[in-house]
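Subject: Interface between my chains keeps coming out wrong

I've been trying for a while to get a sensible model of this assembly. When I model each chain on its own everything looks fine, but I need the whole thing in one frame so I can look at the contacts. Pasting all components below, labels as-is. Any help appreciated, I'm running out of ideas.
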Amino acid sequence: MTLVPTFAQSLPVLDGVPAEYTHELYAGLLYELCVALAREGLADAETWRSAKENAVAFAQRAILDAVGKECLEVLERNIEYHLAVSDALERNGEETTRSDGRLVLSIECSASGFLKLGPAIEALEREAPGLGAAFYWTLIDGLYRVLRIYGHEEAFEYEDRLRDYAVQDSENLEQYEFPEVEKAFPECIRRTLKRDPAQFARQACRTLRRHRKGNYRKWIEQLTRIRWFTRHPLWADRTLAEEGEYDDPPLPSLVVAFHEQDAIVACFDEERQYMLEASHEPAIGVAFSPRKPDEVHHALRVGRRFVALNLAVCALLEEIERWEKQEEKGHGGTR
Amino acid sequence: MTLDELIDLFQAKAQAPPPAASQLFARHLECKESLQIASVLTSAMARHGASGDRPIPAPSEILPPLA
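Reply #2:
Try treating it as a single job with all components included. I did that and got this:
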């Protein structure tokens, strides 16, 4: 490629210039990471050979192999995540190298998945009154505990903010269009909005257990798996979020709505226009020293748990999508 | 190669001084002029790409090479 005609002052021709370059000036940490990955059993001499003896490629391969090809494909179909192991410290949107000899395992979301639950909830309610509400609240309460999602609560908050703006801007009130989030809810969810969470959770658990071998057993199985991963918060290292001085919490990994164009989706569409203007915490971040096996083990455990949770969520999402397609074709079957 | 030998290899590399090419690259990354010329080049490439691959004029001043 020639950028300019030949004359005295011309930009250089770029033919033959390598398109990528790996340098290893501060490679000590990288090789210590390779040691840690090998000791954890995530890679071996065959990985080193197939990575053409490149340490970055070795670490990448070890981590990708640990996630697994099938799992990666499921995640890539539904949510866009970026996993990084880095010695960079992000502060106010700028990166500096950490000085404490530690690395950070982080996963950031850049495109949310979409979980549409309306038709599934209605089908569960037809199966048994209360089953749809039990399914929804068990799922959503669990997800809110461990994952940044955009659901009915965020939509309610957006609607409240919009109404507050409108009150302050009463002269232009007619220009405001309010999303009326509650109207998007299926009746069984609207009815249970003001529930006592602890009491409802016990009741929902009993309802779901009664139907775990019923027509919608696959959904209930996936929900049980998700519940397992949502018992405790995932983020293990709040100091990273504080060090990073981020403007906002992580970008939502998942939009949970009832229908494709409902009020929750409308609120998300409005809010997402401004989401990228701020800096966001990663979905998870764990600092660890590659020289300390217990810290390495902890970081890997947090990463594995996050991946497993997302895999379970994506499996449910795809299961519901498949069911919907079958329903549309008029071949409703056992779930 | 056994796993233990691989780990020994990584540990030796972790302690080894960086290769000369990497040190040169790092010097460039720390050099203000190199970073400026890299910025000029990348912006020229972007303009070249955005203008349908038409030749673009060279900047009025070419930065000196790294001493």
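Reply #3:
Confirming on my end. Residues 87 and 103 of chain A are 5 Å apart (CA to CA).
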